[in-house]
């Protein structure tokens, strides 16, 4: 191990802030890419890597070598990715179960969840720019692109662009709730 790497590990072990800045510079991009290959979502991958950095900072593990430290980082990222994927699978199974077992009146917890998702969706839709909101509200009412174009005196391409922009905005604004919106086929 070269002296620079040895000094870096010593500084990590004594929780020196400058070493954590160096840790970020050396590993952040690579670890995010590594996590993205597993979870397929950049934001989730970035969150996982942040969790790993926090775990290193808060942990009491002492590292003996640069190579061992590096292997530990990637193992930690891999394990957190696996935990995320397991949790996501459980959520998806729950949703399927709830949808298969929902009652016609949608009472109880499922009905409340659906109601809350509708509320979040409509709050987010109200934040869209005016023309984009008008297009998207007509879409939510079941209107086809050519009908919306005619009603609002727009081209079909403009309608499609407004819908695409609305979906991008909603996806970013709603975060995890967007998954539920799609699942309930609300858009």
From TrEMBL:
Pfam families documented for this protein: Sigma70_r2, Sigma70_r4_2
Keyword set includes Metal-binding: no
InterPro entries: RNA_pol_sigma-70-like (IPR039425), RNA_pol_sigma-70_dom (IPR014284), RNA_pol_sigma70_bacteroid (IPR014327), RNA_pol_sigma70_r2 (IPR007627), RNA_pol_sigma70_r4_t2 (IPR013249), RNA_pol_sigma_r2 (IPR013325), RNA_pol_sigma_r3/r4-like (IPR013324), Tscrpt_reg_LuxR_C (IPR000792)
UniProt keyword list: Sigma factor, Transcription, Transcription regulation
Domain HTH luxR-type: 125-170
Family statement drawn from the similarity comment of this UniProt entry: Belongs to the sigma-70 factor family. ECF subfamily.
PANTHER family for the chain: RNA POLYMERASE ECF-TYPE SIGMA FACTO, RNA POLYMERASE SIGMA-70 FACTOR ECF SUBFAMILY
Protein name per Swiss-Prot or TrEMBL: RNA polymerase sigma-70 factor
Annotated organism of origin: Butyricimonas hominis
